[in-house]
Amino acid sequence: MTQALRHDAMRARNLALVLGAVGARGSVTRAALAEMTGLTKTTVSKLVGDLIEGGLVVETGTVRDGERGRPGVEIRISGQRVAALGLEINVDYLAVCVVDLARTVRLRRTQAVDNRAAPPVDVIARLGDLASAVVDEAVEKGLRVVGGVLAVPGPVDMTSGVVHNAPNLGWRDVPLASLLRFPFPVRVENEANLAALGELWFGSGLPDFLHVSGEIGIGAGLVVRGRLFRGAHGFAGELGHVVVSPAGPPCRCGGRGCLEQYAGQDALLTAARAATSVRAATSVRPAADTPPAGASRNVPAGIPHEDAAESAGAAHEGPAEAAGAARETPPPEMLLPAQQGVSWVLSRLREGDENARAACERAAWALGVALSSAVNLVDPDAIVLGGIYAPLFPWIGHMVADTLKARLGQMRGAVPPVVVSRLGAEAAALGAAGQVIEQVMADPAALLHT
Amino acid sequence: MTQALRHDAMRARNLALVLGAVGARGSVTRAALAEMTGLTKTTVSKLVGDLIEGGLVVETGTVRDGERGRPGVEIRISGQRVAALGLEINVDYLAVCVVDLARTVRLRRTQAVDNRAAPPVDVIARLGDLASAVVDEAVEKGLRVVGGVLAVPGPVDMTSGVVHNAPNLGWRDVPLASLLRFPFPVRVENEANLAALGELWFGSGLPDFLHVSGEIGIGAGLVVRGRLFRGAHGFAGELGHVVVSPAGPPCRCGGRGCLEQYAGQDALLTAARAATSVRAATSVRPAADTPPAGASRNVPAGIPHEDAAESAGAAHEGPAEAAGAARETPPPEMLLPAQQGVSWVLSRLREGDENARAACERAAWALGVALSSAVNLVDPDAIVLGGIYAPLFPWIGHMVADTLKARLGQMRGAVPPVVVSRLGAEAAALGAAGQVIEQVMADPAALLHT
C-alpha cells in the first residue's frame, strides 16, 4: 500500500468514526468528538470541515461546554442535503419514498396497480416514472439523492440483482438490477427483509424481532441484535411457504398447504367473499385453486376450534372484545393501496359479517401455526405483524397469540409477544431508503469523493 | 485503567493473537509469527515462551526458513497438556470425551441408561462417576483438563445454567449448573447446538449448514459462516416441535403433530414395531399417546404417497436401491448406545420388513416437511442428518431429499443437499469439548494466570 493509499484509507475510516459518533450522540461539540474518537482536535476539525462541506453534518448554534466552561458549537447530522430513495414493487402496488440523512421521511408516493398482468419492463418503466417525479421534487427541496434500494416480493440474488422467482408476480430469473436506469446506484433486495429493517429503523425500535410482511405473499425478516439475518444465500424468511398443513391446498411454489394459502391476501379475500356475489368479479385465480374456508377437503374443518379449545379463554376472546384494542390500529391514512382489498374485509368485519370473521379466524390460526414453527426454529424476542396484518390486527392479533401460546407455552418460559407494526405497507420502501442511509453513515468518504 | 492493567490486557490480546496464528498455520516459525501479527520478534519470542511454559504450544525440530535462509524452529499447538471435557446427558445414554488442544479426541466413554426414570441428582451423580474415571485416565496421560461443557436435550438458560424444560427427560427448571461438582468450570448448553458445533469442528468441515440431531427428541443447530446461530434467548433450533400436521398426534410439548411425533426415535420404533410382539415390552409411553403409523385419525393415511407422487421417480427410489449408498453409512462402532433401539430397526430393514420400511418412510416424509419449513425460514447451504438419522441414512436420505425437492424446487435455484453426519451420537460431546478448546484459543491468558 502506498503512502497516499494508506492516508486515504485512514481518512475514510476516521470520517466514518466521526460521522458515527455524531449520529450516536444526536448533537455534539468538536471537543467531545475528539474525546469520543481518540483523535486529536485538529484532526477532528479537519474531518468535520469535510463532512460540513459534503452536506453530511451541520453546525447548530453555540452552547456552553459544561465541563470546561468554554463555548462550543454543536455538530449534528444534516437533513438538508444527502437523501436516499426507497422503492418497492409489490404485487398490487408500487411505492417510493425519499428519506434524508437525519432519517426524516421527506416524500412518499404509492400507486395501486396490478403488477401480475404486466411484463417486468413495463412495471419498471412505471416505477421509473413514479421515482423520477419524486426525485425531481427532492431536488427542488435542495436534496441530493445519492442512492436507492428496490424492494421486490421474492428471493433476490444480491450479487447479480437477479430475481430468481417471484411467484406472485409471475417473474422468473428477471435481471432486475440491469434493467434499472437511475443517475445513482440502485440495489435490489427482498421486500420482507427490507420491511423488517424499516421496522427496526423507523418503527418500534425493538432490537430482536421477527417482522411478518403480509401481502399477497407473506415474507418475514428476522432482526437479531439490530442486524438482519439473511441465511446462507440471502433467502431466509420465506414464512409464506412454511407448512401449515402438508396435504392442504396447492401453492404456487409447488408445495401444498403453505401459510400463504391460508393467510395471504388472496386467500383471505377469497375466504371472506366465499358466500358473496362479488367473488367472481375480483378473484384473480381459478376457483379450483382456492377452496373456500372450511369447505376444503384437505383442511380439517375443526382445526381453528381445536386450537381455540386448547388455550382456555381464547374461544371467548372474539373480534368484538378484541376491537377494544382499536387504539393499536394504524390511522386510516396508513391504509395504502396494498390494503384496499383488505379495507373491504375490514368494513365487513365492522358490520359483523360471519364470512369475514371466519376468514380472519382461519388466517390467524394458520399464522399462529406457522409462527410456532418459526419461534421454535429462530427464537425471536417478539413478533411484529405488518403489511395487511397491521389494519387487521384487532381481529387477528389475539388469535395468533393464543395459537402460539397453546403450541409453545409448555416448552418456553415466555412466548414472544405479538405486536402490530406502525408502518404498514410503507415498511419495505422505508427500510430500502434506510439501507442507503446506513451505507452513507458507514462510508461517508465514498460520497465525499464523488 | 492503570499502567499494569493496560499491560495485562495488551499481553492477553497478543497471546491470543499469537496462539490463533499458530492454530491457523498448523506450524510456523517465530519469524513468520512476527510477520503475521505485526509484533516485534522480541515480543513474539516472549509470548511464545509463555505459551510453551503453559503447555499450549510446542517447538518441533528445526527447519530452513526459505525466505531468509536462516534456520528456524517451528511452533505448533501442543496436544500433550491442555485438554477439555465434553459431556452429554441424553434420554437413553450418557457420554463423555476428552479432547486435547490440538483437537485430537483422546478418550471417549458412553453408557446406555434410561434417564427418564431417574431424578436429575441421580443422573448427575452417574455422569460424575463416568467423567471422573475419564479425567483420571486423562491425568495419567499427562493431560490437564481445564474445563468442560455439558450437553442436555432441551433449551438451557445460558446465564444461569438452568434447564427450563427437557420434556423427554421429564425435567423442568433444573438448576443443572449449580448441581455439578468438578474441579474445573463446566457450562451447560443445548445438545443440538453442541452437536452442530461438533459437526463443524470434527465433522464435515462445511461452514454453512443445518445439523439435525435425531434422538428421542429432535434438535437442530444452524451454523452460518462458521458460527452457531442461537436466536434471541439461545433457544433456536427446536426442529422437533416444528409443525408437520397441525391436527396430528399430541406432543409432550403441548402442541400437536410436531416432527418428533413422526420422526423421533420413540415414534419411529413404535411405528416399526406396530405389528410385532416386542412392542409392549419396550414401549415406554402409554399406547394412546402414540398412534401407530397410518392408523392415526389425525394423519391423512395417503400423505407420504402424495409427496412421493409429486416428485417424479421418488416412488421408485425405495430402500432397496438406496442401500447402494451404504458406503455412506457410518461404521458399526459408531452405533453408540443411543442407537441400540435403532439397530433393531436397521436389522428389520435389512431383512426387508414392511413395518420398518413404512416407519422410515413416514419419518423421512415428516423430516422433509419440517425441513422444508426450516429451509424457507433460515436458508441453510446444506442439511446434515446426525444422531439416529446417520445409521438410517441409506433408508431415509433419498426420501428426505425428494420431499424437500418437491416442496422447494420451484422457489429456489438450488435445494440444499441432504448429507449424513460422520459423528453419530458423539457429536454433542465433541462439540462440547470443542467449545472449551475455542475458549482457550480465544483467551489463553486466562489459563496461564491460573
From TrEMBL, chains A, B:
<protein>
    <submittedName>
        <fullName>ROK family protein</fullName>
    </submittedName>
</protein>
<feature type="compositionally biased region" description="Low complexity">
    <location>
        <begin position="310"/>
        <end position="328"/>
    </location>
</feature>
<dbReference type="Pfam" id="PF12802">
    <property type="entry name" value="MarR_2"/>
</dbReference>
<dbReference type="InterPro" id="IPR036388">
    <property type="entry name" value="WH-like_DNA-bd_sf"/>
</dbReference>
<dbReference type="GO" id="GO:0003700">
    <property type="term" value="F:DNA-binding transcription factor activity"/>
</dbReference>
<dbReference type="InterPro" id="IPR000835">
    <property type="entry name" value="HTH_MarR-typ"/>
</dbReference>
<feature type="domain" description="HTH marR-type">
    <location>
        <begin position="17"/>
        <end position="66"/>
    </location>
</feature>
<comment type="similarity">
    <text>Belongs to the ROK (NagC/XylR) family.</text>
</comment>
<dbReference type="InterPro" id="IPR000600">
    <property type="entry name" value="ROK"/>
</dbReference>
<dbReference type="InterPro" id="IPR036390">
    <property type="entry name" value="WH_DNA-bd_sf"/>
</dbReference>
<dbReference type="InterPro" id="IPR043129">
    <property type="entry name" value="ATPase_NBD"/>
</dbReference>
<feature type="region of interest" description="Disordered">
    <location>
        <begin position="282"/>
        <end position="334"/>
    </location>
</feature>
<dbReference type="Pfam" id="PF00480">
    <property type="entry name" value="ROK"/>
</dbReference>
